[in-house]
Design brief:
Radius of gyration: 19 Å
Number of strands: 3
Strand order of the largest sheet: 1-3-2
Organism: Bosea lupini
Number of domains: 2
Strand content: under 5%
CATH architecture of the largest domain: Up-down Bundle
Number of helices: 9
Pfam family, one: GntR
Structural class: mainly alpha
Protein name: DNA-binding transcriptional regulator, GntR family
Order of helices and strands: HEHHEEHHHHHH
InterPro entries: GntR_C, TF_FadR/GntR_C, Tscrpt_reg_HTH_GntR, WH-like_DNA-bd_sf, WH_DNA-bd_sf
Largest sheet: 3 strands, antiparallel
GO molecular function: DNA binding; DNA-binding transcription factor activity
Shape: globular
CATH superfamily of the largest domain: GntR ligand-binding domain-like
């Protein structure tokens, strides 16, 4: 059986997914650095997965723009630059404007109310002086709202593309735009404007507020 063919339990497929998760976790933890040149065997050592799984993984990483092959130099991990920032935020804008409009039309009142509750709780904690888990919790609330809007489309292709783009956004935030205390409340207030437009069941207004929010994030990233 070849490495690319799953056995009856799907184990090779699971191995590839675990190798992918290991790579992305180490990338976000900066154990694998953006812009770094790596070999297959270095990826084996970094991720702890066998060479066969890494060889299966590389085409996916290349297709997702997380690694590229540089002639005579080897494989280079994606690095954060103005081109990555521009492309990632532009792609988000294309996806999320339409997804927000669709979510506004069909999300349940309960789903929307839960989004508002989560955001108001974060703002309340921030205004009370914050705590040691506030930033991490705020980032979770941020991600979960965007994922909920995208996943509401019930389109696996769009959801997967969004998650790859969100990974790149997280790389960008590691350098310049991670939700810190001084921008936490403005980001949450951006979200509440989106939620208010969704509550009013106005797709055009909700899409416009999402566009403003994404453009604000892009401006922060580009300014650095």
């Amino acid at each position: 059986m070849s490495q690319s063919e799953p056995d009856r339990d799907g184990e090779p497929l699971k191995l590839r997914e675990r190798a992918y998760a290991s790579f992305t976790e180490r990338l976000l933890a900066r154990e694998i650095r953006p812009g770094q040149f790596v070999t297959q065997r270095e990826l084996v050592a970094m991720t702890g997965f066998p060479l066969g799984a890494i060889r299966e993984l590389i085409p996916r990483l290349e297709a997702e723009g997380l690694i590229k092959t540089v002639p005579q130099r080897g494989m280079q991990v994606a690095h954060v630059d103005l081109n990555l920032i521009r492309n990632a935020f532009q792609f988000r804008l294309f996806l999320e404007k339409e997804a927000t409009a669709a979510y506004t039309r069909t999300a349940t009142d309960e789903e929307i109310a839960e989004q508002r509750r989560r955001h108001e709780a974060i703002i309340g904690r921030a205004e009370a002086g914050g705590d040691e888990t506030l930033i991490e919790d705020a980032e979770d609330v941020d991600r979960l709202m965007h994922e909920a809007i995208i996943d509401h489309l019930d389109n696996d292709i769009v959801s997967q593309a969004f998650r790859v783009t969100w990974l790149k956004i997280r790389l960008i935030r590691q350098y310049e735009t991670r939700i810190q205390n001084h921008i936490l409340i403005p980001v949450m207030q951006d979200h509440l404007k989106i939620i208010a437009a969704i509550e009013s069941r106005d797709p055009e207004a909700a899409a416009a507020e999402m566009s403003t929010h994404i453009n604000n994030a892009r401006t922060r990233a580009m300014s650095y």
